[in-house]
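Sequence, please.
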C-alpha cells in the first residue's frame, strides 16, 4: 500500500547555506526536465527558495539578495502568477521585453519561453498546472482556445484591488498545512485558479469577451459612478453581464456582492474626502457620496474603519504628512530618502523631519523602516516556509 501523499503534496526548501547549486532548484522541482538552461547565480548571491503544494498548484517564494541571477526558461506545464516585493526582474521574450517591479502582479503563460535577469529580488508566486487550470475553466463554462492557453496582464483597476493576494492571505493557513490534502486541497486550489481565470484575460478568444474584461469594466464603472449609487442592473448592463453573472463573478473574485463593493467604495471615497478636503462637513461628505441616512452612514463607516466619521475629520493629519506617507507606501520597495519624500510632500527635508516628529513621534527614515518590518512580518503572498 502506497504511503505517498495525495496528488504529490510536498514541501521543500533550498538555500545557498545547504550547498544547493542554484540550477539544481529547477531540475529538482521539475522532475529533471531541461526546460531551464544557462541558469546561474553569481557567487555573492544569497538565496532561499521555498515551495509548498501539490501537482495542481504550489505557492513559492525566492529571496535572492546580493549578486545576480539569470537564465532561460522554456515552455513548461504550469502558468506562473507572481509579485516582487523587492528588486527588479527583466523578462526577455522573442517579441518584447518586460521589466517587472514591485507591487504589480505578472503572469507568465506556460507555453511562453523567456530569458530572465534579476538582482536583489524577493519573489512570491503561485504555479498552476495548465491541465488543472483548463479543467477549472471548463467547469466554469469558460471558452478556452484549442491551442496554447495564453494570458494578458491584469488591468490596473483590478490589480489595485489585489483579489488574488487577498484570497491567498485568507487561505494561507490551510495552504501551508500539510494535513490539508486530497479533496480539501483541491477545493482550495480551485478557488485560486478561479480568481486567476476571472482576473487575467485569456488571449485568442475570437469574438468572445473574457470574463476578466467584464469584471474590469464593472469595477471601472463603479469607481466612476459611485456617487450616483448605480443599481446592480445598471452595473451589469455597463459591463455586458447578466445580473446573475455579475453577482457570480464578484462572489468568486472579490468575495463580496456588487452592491456591497459599491457601498465600500463609497465609504472609502468619503473617508478620503474627510481626510483631504479643506474644511469638510461630515453631512456634506456623506451626501456627496449618496449616504442620505446619517445614522446608517455612521454605523457603516464605523464598521469599515473602526471609528466615527467625526473622529476622522477631527483627527486628520497634516496634508503634507499625508502626502509623504502616501508616497512612502507607494514606493516602499524602492529607494527612499528624506529628500525624495520631502520633494513628494512639497516641503523642505528639515520641515518634513519636524512634521513627522510632531505627528508620528519618529523620523521619516524610522517610519519607513518600521513599515518595511511590518510588511516583511505579514507578507503579501507571505513567506511560504
Amino acid at each position: 500500500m502506497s504511503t505517498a501523499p495525495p496528488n504529490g503534496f510536498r514541501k521543500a526548501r533550498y538555500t545557498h547555506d545547504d550547498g544547493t547549486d542554484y540550477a539544481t532548484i529547477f531540475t529538482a522541482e521539475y522532475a529533471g526536465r531541461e526546460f531551464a538552461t544557462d541558469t546561474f547565480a553569481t557567487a555573492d548571491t544569497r538565496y532561499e527558495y521555498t515551495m509548498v503544494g501539490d501537482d495542481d498548484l504550489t505557492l513559492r517564494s525566492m529571496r535572492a539578495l546580493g549578486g545576480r541571477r539569470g537564465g532561460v526558461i522554456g515552455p513548461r506545464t504550469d502558468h506562473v502568477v507572481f509579485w516582487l516585493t523587492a528588486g527588479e526582474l527583466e523578462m526577455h521574450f522573442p517579441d518584447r521585453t518586460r521589466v517587472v517591479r514591485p507591487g504589480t502582479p505578472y503572469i507568465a503563460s506556460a507555453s511562453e519561453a523567456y530569458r530572465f535577469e534579476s538582482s536583489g529580488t524577493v519573489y512570491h508566486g503561485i504555479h498552476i498546472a495548465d491541465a488543472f487550470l483548463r479543467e477549472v475553466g471548463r467547469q466554469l463554462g469558460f471558452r478556452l482556445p484549442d491551442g496554447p492557453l495564453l494570458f494578458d496582464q491584469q488591468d490596473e483597476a483590478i490589480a489595485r484591488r489585489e483579489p488574488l493576494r487577498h484570497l491567498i492571505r485568507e487561505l494561507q493557513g490551510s495552504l501551508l498545512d500539510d494535513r490539508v490534502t486530497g479533496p480539501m486541497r483541491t477545493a482550495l486550489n480551485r478557488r485560486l485558479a478561479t480568481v486567476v481565470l476571472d482576473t487575467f484575460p485569456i488571449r485568442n478568444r475570437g469574438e468572445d469577451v473574457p470574463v476578466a474584461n467584464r469584471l474590469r469594466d464593472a469595477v471601472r464603472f463603479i469607481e466612476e459612478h459611485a456617487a450616483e449609487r448605480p443599481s446592480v442592473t445598471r452595473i451589469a448592463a455597463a459591463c455586458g453581464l447578466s445580473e446573475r453573472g455579475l453577482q457570480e463573478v464578484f462572489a468568486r473574485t472579490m468575495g463580496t456582492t456588487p452592491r456591497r463593493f459599491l457601498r465600500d467604495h463609497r465609504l472609502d471615497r468619503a473617508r478620503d474626502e474627510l481626510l483631504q478636503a479643506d474644511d469638510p462637513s461630515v453631512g456634506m461628505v456623506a451626501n456627496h457620496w449618496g449616504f442620505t441616512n446619517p445614522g446608517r452612514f455612521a454605523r457603516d463607516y464605523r464598521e469599515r474603519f473602526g471609528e466615527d466619521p467625526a473622529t476622522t475629520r477631527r483627527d486628520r493629519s497634516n496634508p503634507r504628512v499625508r502626502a509623504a506617507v502616501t508616497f512612502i507606501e507607494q514606493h516602499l520597495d524602492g529607494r527612499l530618502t528624506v529628500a525624495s519624500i520631502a520633494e513628494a510632500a512639497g516641503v523642505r527635508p528639515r520641515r518634513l523631519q519636524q512634521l513627522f516628529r510632531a505627528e508620528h513621534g519618529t523620523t521619516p527614515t524610522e517610519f519607513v523602516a518600521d513599515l518595511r518590518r511590518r510588511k516583511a512580518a505579514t507578507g503579501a503572498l507571505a513567506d511560504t516556509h
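Residues 201 and 225 are 24 Å apart (CA to CA).
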